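=== RUN LOG ===
request id: a7f3
mode: sequence -> structure
chains: 1
length: 162
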Amino acid sequence: MMSGASSALAGLLGASLAAVAVLPAASPPGTALHAAELRAYVAAMDGRKAEALAALQRAGDAAAASGAAGDSGWTLTPQYAALVRFGLWDEMLAVLPPDPRRIGLTAGYLYARGFALAARGRLPEAQTALARLRALAAQAPPDVAAGANTLAAVLEVAVPIV
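=== RESULT ===
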């Protein structure tokens, strides 16, 4: 049973998705990406794995189409978060590492890979992933965005968790 706050949030998210669904094709860049990310987030938080993974595929396609894929890559990290969310450790470990110049995407990859390795009991490899994430955090330029935050601020929180 949903609490009042959860029910209200679900209503707001539903209204947002409905509004985005009827936007014209000439909508501002990133609108389709935002819609796909929102769908993926809602589905993941509700435990709907297939729907979340499909929405993340659409988000990746939208990011590439909008040019968002040309940044640090942060907009593409939800693909890793979903694999961690659903405990798809082997699938995460099968993902090839991103271009290391895409530091946002690399950070998301190393974070998720560290979780997957630890979950599989491969602790020395997990520690290596963590060391690489710490090194990336130490060299991350302060102005690189990670959503509404900076990558440095996100990594300051993320590194102690892994």
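=== NOTES ===
The helical segments are 4-21, 31-45, 49-66, 78-85, 89-94, 103-119, 123-139, 151-161.
The chain has a mean pLDDT of 80.
=== END ===
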